Amino acid sequence: MAEFQTRDAPPQAVTDYLDKKGLKPSFDWDAVWQQEHATAFTVAKLTELSVLNDVHESLKRALANGTGFKAWSKEVRKLLEEKGWAGPREVTDPETGEVRRTNLTSPHRLRTIFETNMRTARAAGQYERASRTASALPYFLYRLGASREHRPHHEEKDGLILPVGDPFWREWFPPNGWGCKCWLRQISEREAQRLGYDGAPAPRILEQAYRRKSTGEIERVPQGIDPGFAWSPGQGRASNLMSFLGRELGASPMARADAALADLKRWPSFRKFVDGAYAKGDARREAGLEARQPPPDDRPELAWERTAFPVARLPDDLAARLGLKLPLVVVNESAIGHGGTSSIRPADAWGQIHEGLKRSEIYRVGDELRVFWKTGDQNTVLILKRVGDDLTRASTLFTTSARRFERRKRDASEAGERLK
């Protein structure tokens, strides 16, 4: 069997996939479901957090250094032996009390852990690269890997060509199961035509029922994809990171949220989010696209992502007064990117919203919250809009002159109600 290796030093997006995962001890692998794997690292039956962390760190080193399976398995087997997890042992499900026998150091188990994590990390990097280069290489070509035997549904997909942005890839983005070695090749329009692509729509995705061991819930999963694999690692990465952060900040005491958000503007993930939104906004303006206008089919990379990044937490009393389920303020790509040169551009500015809210005046005018604060000689105006009953979204952030600042604040006072 050919050894899976990480080859050259991987791109940042590949290492980020493992670096930014939190730890989630679980008894069954499907306790962490579908896209949740984008933000949570787990090994079934490995319920001890410190040991899970050691395995996670070893995989991160292997990915960064190009370590192959043999060298990694030797390292992690020694680690598990030192922690008392080597060989067969009984593990108790903390939720149900069920006891099962497992062997985390068996060669098959270690290979599954290693290859699944390496292949999904690579897939996340490929998704991000494809989103940047789709204008030159607008199609994915599905190919079978080097397995001795192939799943019938995977064989049916061999040679399939579809646009990079086709919804089909949200579920059929390899790897599509345990040990799956299928892969995608990004190709040009000329090559797609040479290979016979005629614009035919994606094949229909048929589903079947699957009962999750961890919860007993019945899920609908695509036929041909192992349960838990029907998602795109790169696409899930961003949205689930934001979802995870939002849940954590929304459920935390204000003091903890203060500490987490104090350094927001220095978080690499946040700076990357803001910089990417501005870059996409500039590219959309060059293409002549209006704020809400969808891009043409051959420019899927110009579509606004629905991802929203939490940037602030409202005081609990204000959130309760507004009837919000989550006391969060979020910002999305379009709010940042559409503003262009007339709006605040640095991540530092968008990262100051949490602190700005503490010393602000807030007015409710219709369905908007108009927020005003001063930082030295800088006069900042923030417009928030409700997102259903859940939270608020920053739609506009800008600085203005002292005269216009006071006039806007006076207009808000006359037209609405002061909340703070």
In short:
The protein has 420 residues and is α+β, with helices and mostly antiparallel strands. The chain is built from 14 helices and 16 strands.
Descriptive notes:
- There is one protein chain.
- With 420 residues, this protein is α+β, with helices and mostly antiparallel strands.
- Helices cover 38% and strands 19% of the residues.
- The strands form five sheets. The chain has a seven-stranded mixed beta sheet with strand order 10-11-15-14-13-12-16, with helices on both faces. It has a three-stranded antiparallel beta sheet with strand order 6-5-7.
- The protein starts with 11 loop residues before the first helix and ends with a strand.
State the main characteristics:
about 425 residues; alpha+beta; seven-stranded mixed β-sheet; three-stranded antiparallel β-sheet; 14 helices; about 20% strand; disordered N terminus
